[in-house]
Amino acid sequence: MFDHVSIGVSDIQRAGRFYDAVLKPLDITRLSDGDTSLGYGEKSPALWVQVANKPVKPDMGSGLHFCFTAKSRAAVDAFHAAALKSGGKDNGKPGVRADYGPKYYAAFVVDPDGYRIEAYCGK
Fold first, then answer.
1. For a surface tag, which of 27, 38, 56, 117 has the fewest beta carbons within 10 Å of its beta carbon?
2. What does the H/E/C string look like for 89-106?
3. 1, pLDDT greater than 90
4. What phi, psi does 61 have (nearest 5°)?
5. Is the whole model's pTM more than 0.70, yes or no?
6. 3-state secondary structure of 24
7. What total of structural domains would you count in the chain?
8. Is the Cβ–Cβ distance between 80 and 93 less than 8 Å?
9. Domain containing 33 — which CATH number?
């Protein structure tokens, strides 16, 4: 349904280090590299990270989050570990979320700018 999503960040270099690390276990890489924007995807950029004068303020009650598909549970675990090592905060350790389904294995983190992100595997 979506072609891409863009998020605004306060520090593009910090965001680049974070997203390089957390997306690598999901086989998502930096495909576009600029001074003010970075594009991530598998074949073409689907996540754009851009410098913004007024990034959206974090709001844990908003419900806003971005979920990335993982090819395995090990990839979800690696995503979570990389996030914590790269300046992210835990928002839900890796595990089965039975309320979403018996095979819904996910981890939740908050990036350095306050965006909530998730990695999910349905196997």
1. 27
2. EEEEEEEECCCCCCCCEE
3. no
4. -90, 0
5. yes
6. helix
7. 1
8. yes
9. 3.10.180.10
How many Cα atoms occupy the beta-carbon half-sphere of 48 within 13 Å?
13
**Mean pLDDT, range 66-73, rounded to an integer:** 96
CB atoms within 10 A of CB 110: 19
User: Do 16 and 112 touch, CB atoms closer than 8 A?
Assistant: no
Tokens (6 digits) for 120? 């999910």
Q: In what order do the strands lie in the sheet with 66-69?
A: 66-69, 116-121, 105-110, 89-96
CB 36 within 8 A of CB 48: no
Q: What is the pLDDT of residue 105?
A: 98
Boundaries of domain holding 75: 5-121
Identify the DSSP state of 55: P
pLDDT of residue 63: 85
Q: Which two tokens stand for residue 115?
A: 């965006």
Paired tokens of 103: 């095979």
Please determine, for residue 117, whether its predicted confidence score (pLDDT) is greater than 90: yes
Mean pLDDT of the chain: 95
